Amino acid sequence: MINIIINIFNFLIVINSEMLQNECSRAKGHLTIVEHFNNLNFLSIVDNLTLINLICFITGILTVLLNRNNLLITLIGVELVLLSANMIFILGSFINNDPQGLMYVLCILTVSAVETGLGVAVLVFAYGTISNTNYSRLNNLKS
Fold first, then answer.
1. CA distance 120 to 128
2. At what angle do helices 42-66 and 71-96 cross, to 10 degrees?
3. In 10 A of CB 48, how many CB atoms?
4. How far is the C-alpha of 79 from the C-alpha of 128, rounded, in Å?
5. Could you tell me the fold of the domain covering 66-142?
6. SS (H, E, C) the chain
7. CB 3.0-4.6 Å disulfide test: which of 2, 3, 12, 35 passes with 48?
């Protein structure tokens, strides 16, 4: 699944670099790096980043819903969901020139850090106690 996401990301990078080359070949003379990025179609970059975030979000949701065995994989899925939500807030913040989205990102990152710390603590305790991280064996930790 990760290879598919990497291939899609590489494909989008190739498309954007081809657009950059086409725009630069039309321009006369040498352009600076800032002018190269100003020649790109901003809407297509936002669309591509939104598509990447959607893929990450769906992958995280499917990981949480379909994984019934491993606690670590579930934590990774939750992190994917939170990070894709952060990227959408950042994109919206930059598009609308509104710093309120960045405040939401700070709050979500705080919750994500706490969730990761507690999840890893439970994971280490479970692995140290029962040498397994399956959900079915975690009921043994109640006693």
1. 12
2. 160
3. 17
4. 23
5. Helix Hairpins (1.10.287)
6. CHHHHHHHHHHHHHHHHHHHHHHHHHCCCCCCHHHHHHHCCHHHHHHHHHHHHHHHHHHHHHHHHHCCCEHHHHHHHHHHHHHHHHHHHHHHHHHHCCCHHHHHHHHHHHHHHHHHHHHHHHHHHHHHHHCCCECCCHHHHHC
7. 12
CB-based burial, 72-98: b 16+ in 10 Å, e otherwise: eebbbbbbbbbbbbbbbbbbbbeeeee
Which of 35-39, 110-114, 118-122 is least confident?
Answer: 35-39
Question: What b/e sequence results for 100-137 when a residue is b if at least 16 CB atoms lie within 10 Å of its CB, and e otherwise?
Answer: ebeebbeeeeeebeeeeeebeeebeebeeeeeebeeee
- 93: tokens are 């913040």
Contact, 112 vs 120, CB < 8 A? Answer: no
Residue 62 has pLDDT above 90, yes or no: yes
And the tokens for 40?
Answer: 């790109």
Please report, for the chain, the start and end positions of each structural domain, with discontinuous segments joined by +.
66-142
